């Protein structure tokens, strides 16, 4: 499984941001091998982290060249005061089965 974690500090979001953010999320969800996503916000700092999950890199590569994603990359400084993207390959995923997830554990199994 491949993950792309988008970590950012926000400035002020406007209607254009929300519209573009929705288009990007829709593109990610429609991409090949998309598995799910999760978002967290640190209540103290306001820092936000969104993790997208794919079975393979194909969908991630599709998202990277999506015109809405490219527009957001050009305009990020209007809405964000900084960002970082971390791309990772998940080697293992396990747990006690009690914690719900947007991605089923059986879908996360990958070969190392």
TrEMBL record:
Gene3D superfamilies per the UniProt record, alphabetical: 3.30.70.100
Superkingdom to which the source organism belongs: Bacteria
Molecular-function annotations in GO: monooxygenase activity
Keywords assigned by UniProt, alphabetized: Monooxygenase, Oxidoreductase, Plasmid
InterPro entries assigned to the protein according to its UniProt record, in alphabetical order: Dimeric_a/b-barrel (IPR011008)
Presence of the UniProt keyword Oxidoreductase in the record: yes
Protein name: Antibiotic biosynthesis monooxygenase
